[in-house]
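Customer ticket, subject: "Can you confirm the structure for Probable membrane transporter protein?"

Message body: Hello, I'm evaluating your service for our small team and ran a test protein. I'd like someone to confirm that this is what the system normally returns, since I don't have a reference to compare against.
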Amino acid sequence: MTWQTGLTGFLAGLVISVVTSPVGVAGAVFLLPVQLSVLHVPSPAVTPTNLLFNVVAGPGALARYRRNGQLIGPLARLLIAGTVPGVILGAIVRVFAIPGPQVFRIVAAAVLLPLGLWLLGRTLRPVTADRPPLSRRTILGLSVVTGAVGGIYGIGGGSVLGPILAGRGMPMTQIAPAALAATFATSLAGAGTYGVLALTTSGNIAPHWTLGLLCGAGGLIGGYLGARLQPHLPERALRLLLGTLATAIAVLYLIQSLQPQR
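Agent reply: Thanks for trying us out. I re-ran your input and got the following:
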């Protein structure tokens, strides 16, 4: 790896995390296309490299949310209880079922596009009474599913669940720290699972350690800065940002999936 590649990874992690951490989305969701298209990390190694980024970058935003007194409550524990077993399942599916980048991008787009459009629609429509909050059992079930999806494309799980909870009217000040805590925990579990699979399975499965650490170092700084900004941003703007991010990344994946493989 050249120093230019390392610097690009560091700056990408920094900028992306500043934008995404206020809405509880790990920067890995946008770092993924950068790794595939700019840094040329092979598949499926790009997924554990992304999870490694989450592990290194996560404490920055979490430390700031804890200092703000926002990292308290049962939501984070509930999300972690579901997403950790889900991400282990997702890692196994990623390695043995969809190792190629083309199918991988289509799966990611199929998940993020409807979530992003749904959240944008609920935010832009005239103000109406929010639906009843989701039950603990429903949130736990969704956490398992989104954890598996997160394990498949290397973003943990909280980044997928965040738009769902926001669409049901839960405040972003509650969602963001809980989703990032779940993403951090599931990324630890997911990275460990990929490490075990790399010992027993052939192919590019192990993470690219140096690049993942450099991207994570940028994300550590950017996540702290983004979490510091979050209490000063309006709720509606945060919901629109989250919906826009999810929709934009889905469109990007669809465009990339239509390009011929190299």
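A couple of notes from the result: Residues 3-258 form one domain. The longest helix spans residues 172-200. Feel free to reply with more questions.
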